[in-house]
Amino acid sequence: MVVLVCACATVPSAPSPADTAPSDALTTFITLVDAGHFEDAYQLLSAPLRARYTPDLLKRDWDLEPLAKERLDQARQALARGCQRSGEEAVFSLGGGRAVRLVREAGAFKVAALE
């Protein structure tokens, strides 16, 4: 399940697929979910997650997740610390063995997991 919320006031446009930095992709995803733009946020999910989700299902899971705010705070803290990159993967540690994982697909980083 991927669930994030953001308290950002503005909604950026989706990043260009060409070589998007992992932090930019994650920041944009968080901002879009917070603004309720689940159609756009869905496009920033990795292919395996898009195969399991729809924008409506992403919204439903978000609305039902009791720890959404806590996960957001952890993701923001992880963004501030930066990520570790290895090949086509970027990992933002949340602590306790959990992480936000992004993978590069067609030149752009996509959210693959929020553990």
Write structural notes for this entry.
The protein has 115 residues and is α+β, with helices and mostly antiparallel strands. It has one domain (22-114). The protein has helices at 22-34, 38-43, 47-52, 55-64, 68-81; strands at residues 84-86, 89-95, 98-105, 108-114. It has a four-stranded antiparallel β-sheet. β2 (89-95) and β3 (98-105) form a beta hairpin. The relative contact order is 0.23.
SSE arrangement:
Elements: H1 22-34, H2 38-43, H3 47-52, H4 55-64, H5 68-81, E1 84-86, E2 89-95, E3 98-105, E4 108-114
Antiparallel strand pairs: 1-2, 2-3, 3-4
**Order of adjacent strands in the largest pleated sheet:** 1-2-3-4
Q: How many helices in DSSP terms?
A: 5
- CA radius of gyration: 13 Å
Low-confidence segments, given as residue ranges, are 3-19
- Secondary structural class: alpha+beta
How much beta, percentage-wise? 15-25%
Can you tell me the overall shape?
A: globular
Total strands: the figure is: 4
Helix content: 40-55%
- Count of individual domains: 1
What do the pLDDT scores average to? 83
Please report the distance between the alpha carbons of the first and last residues. Answer: 8 Å
Largest sheet: 4 strands, antiparallel
Secondary-structure element string:
HHHHHEEEE
